[in-house]
Predict the structure.
Amino acid sequence: MAVSAVMWARENLFAAVLLLLAAPVLFGCAAEPPAEAEAESESASPSMPANTAPQTSASVPPRAPESLEIPSVPPADDRGIVEGGDLSWPQCPEGMGIKERRTLGLPMPLASAEYVVIGLTNGPAFTPNPCLASQVEWAKKNKVMTSAYAVTSYPRDATIREHGGEGPGDPDTKIGRLTNVGYQQAVWNLEAMERAGLESPSVWMDVEPVAVWEWTDDIEANQAVVKGALAGYQDAGKRVGVYSIEGLWTPIVGDLQLQLPEWRPAGEASRAAALERCGGEWMFQGGVAVMVQWLEDGRDRNVTCPGESVQLPLWFHQY
């Protein structure tokens, strides 16, 4: 028994030494992941081409379009075409506001409106809708869903001097300063929303000609303002759509394709004529139409496009 134990010990000691000598071979490659794991890890994160450097241009490129296929909140049931309206400074009691945009006392949305898009400005940027707070209270009282829209406009020289130095653009360049002004327009509008108590997960950028605050013939300069505003809303976590149409959009920003959802106006027309603008042939910057608008009896009326009522929780807050 004693001899066998000694022999057993010697044999096992010899085996242990061999095992220690072989350890680098057996276990040394365990620190490196298998090729399949490396490939899986690379595919799990965004990749950048080897020769692509981060963009440092003074202008801010449009953000990647948000996907409505992966909503941040559960979509609603498809209710077909849902009617709404919009209101802003024209619906304020007559005679208020800036001298270039006196309010008109136009009628409020119809009782059939289930949602309203409330304007934040009195026309151009940095001018407040003079009865924004009371319109928010009206929406709460009537328990309608609310979203917000704001006019994006080209700044005057004094506005560039005041707001061009702070934002994502290079303040030493013209395009950078205009980008910053657009960004500050968004910041200003969001602060106005907060003061008025307006709840909305989104903001619609209204891009169209603004009398007295005309856009320039410099497409790149105009684009910088729009891109800056978009960056300001997105940095604040807002979903962004665009209110315009090709005849208004293209003369201002050319072929700029932001690929954001669209809210398309039809002017003084009918509900049927407005719904025709839901079609893809009316696309102006690469986005799908969520709503269309028409003017009838002094009211801006809206309807969701077919199939888009499921997206209402993404764009509206329910009071």
The first strand starts at residue 83 and ends at 87. Residues 1-71 have pLDDT under 50 and may be disordered. The radius of gyration is 29 Å. The chain is about 35% helix and 15% strand.
